[in-house]
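Quick question, first post here. What does this chain look like in 3D?
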Amino acid sequence: MAVVIDGKSLTVEKVIRVCRGMEEVTIAPEAQEAVNKARAYIEKKLEENAVIYGLTTGFGKFANVVISPEETAALQKNLIMSHTCTAGEPYEQKYVRAAMLLRCNALVRGYSGIRLSTVQTMIDMLNAGIHPVVPCKGSLGASGDLAPLSHIALGLIGLGDVEYKGEIMPAADAMAKEGITPVQLAAKEGLALNNGTQMMTAVGVNVLYDAMKLAKVADIAGAMTAEALHGITKAYDEKVHLLRGHQGQIDVAANMRALLEGSKNAFRVQPTKVQDPYTLRCIPQIHGASRDAFRYVFDMVSREINAVTDNPIVFPDDDDVISGGNFHGQPMALTFDFLKIAISELANVSERRIERLTNPALAEGLPGFLTKHGGVCSGYMIAQYAAASMVSENKVYDHPASVDSIPSSGNQEDHVSMGTTAARTAAMVLDNAQKVIGIELSAAAQGIWLRQEIGESEIDNLAAGTRAAYDYIRTKADPIDEDVIMYNELKKFDEMIKDESLLDAVEKVVELR
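> Answer (accepted):
Ran it through. Tokens below.
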């Protein structure tokens, strides 16, 4: 089923369907009318020889240079070519597809003055799987994502390289294979295509989607660790969490109760201890705070994916064209800095639970470093090192990009957001967090197995929720009796988090919030 865009009703879920599920996109009839109306207004202003920024003037510091009608087409093409000042590795396909979708969705609101045929050509490329190659570095998030969006526009006009059916080739060649004619840009169109926050938002919406899934997996990992370390479930009692009132905390506590319901390892009261350390006892408070942050990010992103963020903005009904600053990425820069900090905390507390599982002084009687053959075997000793390394690396990435600014364009653009850096580092933090929580899942499963091996427990002692997780894990990874190449083992857990297969297996048994 195609995703219909109108500039107003796009959702996070629909973005994911297009950028990962390869669903096709169409423009709503009312949006087509709005685009045509705005373009007609632009054509009228051109006939009147009106002086409008980016339409009959240069850009940035050259805003006072008036461009003749004969030069307007060259102006738009030159804008795109000159602004492709990127560097680094290309963005993943899902990010490019999301950026193309979001740019089209902003344009069809009817405030940009672009031709409908130009937007439709980008949608045709998206539907045909033609994805411009967009290097990931070079955006200040000031006049939006000028450099990366220019790369997308470059493909639209048949220049530069694209990824098509798994191959990198010239854009013109891929478009010819699909019968798509490259666009000859008209007045205002170059600026409409490369002014906006769509690249940072494309990355951020993908990171957010995965972070929301990871929050559930973190609860599963915490519950499995509680099984391995004889956790005390009374701390998850609903009445405790209702007193504080934070929804994320309430939801996580409910998940922990559901995941541990019926466990014969984790009890409301443990005869050997009065309370658990914070990493177990405060799972609802810690995980829940990240969830509340994700809700804030979700609300901000949901607005941004339906926002008009280019410049100048055309108001045909008011006979007005306003040069404003909706392209400025500050709202998303702050949002994605918050997002990466919230993701990091899921990894930080997970690494501390890994330490408790592997440290013989803290592991409630489990063999040191989760091996029966300590000395000749190191077990999970270095797995904890790896987790510690990644959470420390995240602390570097967590430095807020949004507090930095560097003037550009001859000091015309004298405050920039660095929002794209915030989004890109959020993606790096997410990858590390997924790997760390994967290590906890592996270590907790090993601890559960060792309880059986040393005769302290049986597999039937697990709750239904944690049993579903454990059983699925054992379809992918065997218990580790003697040392193995750990990279190969831990990679399995990273993959089962990223492909959502572990979460799917558990949610067939327990409904998680």
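The chain has two domains: 3-196, 204-507.
The CA atoms of residues 15 and 21 lie 9 Å apart.
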